[in-house]
Amino acid sequence: MTPRKILPLLILVLSTSFIGGCANLNDPYYNDPYDRGYGYPPSSYPARDYYRDRERDRIRDERQDLEEERRRVEDERRRLERQRERERQQAQKPVYSAPPKRESCPSGWRPGRCSTKDRKHGCKDMRMPGGLGCRTN
Fold first, then answer.
1. Which DSSP string do the residues of 37-51 spell out, in sequence order?
2. CA 103 to CA 131: how far, in whole Å?
3. C-alpha–C-alpha distance, residues 78 and 71, integer Å
4. Which residue, 22, 28, 64, 114, has fewest beta-carbon neighbours within 10 Å?
């Protein structure tokens, strides 16, 4: 590009940036697309403040409800854990029962086992439910 073509383009760019840079967007009376022509600055528009406050209150109430629900669920979880722990401890405790009887052989029998030689001569043996072996002869 030649300098003659660049110069007008440069002037155009600089002038538009200068004009656009002068707009004060923080001015409360700046043209706001939400301003319906009531003459209020955007920050003092009553209906907008009312709805903004209602929305803020609704969000705060929802957060409080969620926090209460979270606490309730946490309390219920702790209660169930304590209940399960009690049930587990009760299941581990032995239920009272009479002391075990000492196992003994029935009358006519004595503790021990028969050998092969004794069996040929008529010896009989048996095992009691508790594991004690008993024999005759």
1. SSS--GGG-HHHHHH
2. 9
3. 11
4. 22
- What's this model's pTM, rounded to 2 decimal places? 0.35
Looking up tokens 């073509």, which residue turns up?
A: 5
* Amino acid at position 99, single letter: P
> Is residue 115 within 8 Å of 137, Cβ to Cβ?
no
pLDDT score, position 51: 87
> Of 16, 18, 14, 40, which Cα lies nearest the Cα of 29?
40
What residues have CB less than 8 Å from 45, skipping those under 6 apart? 34, 35, 38
Residues 6+ apart with CB under 8 A from 110: 134, 135, 136
pLDDT at position 109: 93
Structure letter (DSSP) for residue 133: E
